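[job 0412] stage=complex_fold ligand=adenosine monophosphate status=START
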Amino acid sequence: MLISDILRNKGSHVTMVDPDATLESLVTLLAEQRIGAAVVSHDGATLDGIISERDVVRALAEFGVAALSRTVHEVCTENVTVAAPSDRLEDLAAVMTEGRFRHVPIVVDGQVQGIVSIGDVVKGRMSELEAETEALTGYINSGG
Ligand code: AMP
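[job 0412] stage=complex_fold status=DONE, emitting structure tokens
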């Protein structure tokens, strides 16, 4: 399965946040959208970074409640690992495991075209395995 197959199912919507937004507005956004991370972008298309609930927790541990007044820019990760629609889901799963992050933006020509979370990876891998099991069962039952 390719990343493009995942995006075809889930769509290309990516929640973005301005680098100058406060962590307070970010947590509202994450809660409202029921997501764990947002792509940081100054223009709604270019990838400037990524910020997840983990970054918020780290900032809270360091600065206490005052962290909520900090900007996304101060707290986000700027060195972002990205993938392309033509990449294989299996490879992306390995990248997430090795990098210890659960979100990967999908970028084409410098523009964010989607985001894949660990939940999407698990869902995709499960349907791959189910299809494989069905094919093997069919093969065995047909006397193959
Ligand atoms: P997550 O597991 O996605 O909540 O992120 C854990 C940590 O990795 C946080 O510090 C994120 O900012 C960072 N992070 C998330 N996704 C990526 C990515 N694709 N590339 C680099 N860092 C990331």
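The beta strands are 16-17, 37-40, 49-52, 103-108, 111-117.
[job 0412] exit 0
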